[in-house]
Amino acid sequence: MELWPQKAVHLPEHNALLVADVHLGKAQAFRRLGVPVPGGTTQDNLQTLDVLLGGTGARQVIFLGDFLHAPQSSSPALLHAVHAWRQRHATISMVLVRGNHDLRAGDPPATLEMDIVDEPWPLGPWALCHHPQQVAGRYALAGHVHPAVQVGRVGRVGRSRDRLRLPCFHLGTQVAVLPAFGHFTG
């Protein structure tokens, strides 16, 4: 198992790239609710996936839940961008292990040619999940909780000084939790 700084896991033995909590369309859903957030996160996410596929040579991408953020995420513009990205990677197998947001947003369009599975999904010695959970006889790789670490110090009266909140991998004895992959998630 290789941990990549772009918040992904590469399983060389299975030639698989794992990412959790992409949340495509999250910024768009916020903007529809009147929250002023920047655009471009979908393209950022897809470009990061391009970098990871090029760097790992993976022949399979496995999304550990929460591929789309909400039903409002399926806008024509977002779907066009994702379809164009998928066409560039037509020879790569893609799997979505359903997460809680996928249940609300619905499965991605069939035209994306993704296999949709429920958790836990076995792959060699691994149990691929969205929700962190122990799976008998396997080491679970999951997402959902968006682990992070706070680095720095707190000033007097709780004021923050030189403090950062950074995504991280949380590796336990039976379960590893990946950081949220999405650029507007965490």
User: Which stretches are low in confidence, meaning pLDDT under 50 for 5 or more residues running?
Assistant: none
Order of strands across the main sheet: 1-2-3-4-5-6
Shape: globular
Number of helices: 4
What characterizes the major β-sheet? 6 strands, mixed
Number of DSSP E strands: 13
> What is the N-to-C succession of helices and strands?
EEEHHEHEHEEEEEEEE
Q: By helix and strand content, what is the structural category?
A: alpha/beta
**Percentage of β-strand residues:** 25-35%
Q: What level of helicity do the residues show?
A: 10-25%
Q: What separation lies between the terminal Cα atoms?
A: 23 Å
Mean pLDDT, as a whole number? Answer: 88
Describe it.
By secondary structure, this protein is of the alpha/beta class. Helix content is 23%, strand content 28%. The strands form 3 sheets. The protein has a 6-stranded mixed beta sheet, with helices on one face. Strands 7-8-9-13-12 form a 5-stranded mixed beta sheet, with no helix packed on it. Strand 2 and strand 3 form a beta hairpin. The radius of gyration is 17 Å and the shape is globular. 35% of the residues are buried. The model has no long low-confidence stretch (mean pLDDT 88).
Key phrases:
186 residues, 4 helices, 28% strand
Secondary structure layout plus pairing:
Blueprint: E1 2-4, E2 8-11, E3 16-19, H1 26-32, H2 41-56, E4 60-63, H3 76-88, E5 93-97, H4 100-105, E6 115-117, E7 121-123, E8 126-128, E9 139-142, E10 148-154, E11 160-167, E12 170-171, E13 175-177
Parallel strand pairs: 3-4, 4-5, 5-6, 8-9, 9-13
Antiparallel strand pairs: 1-2, 2-3, 7-8, 10-11, 12-13
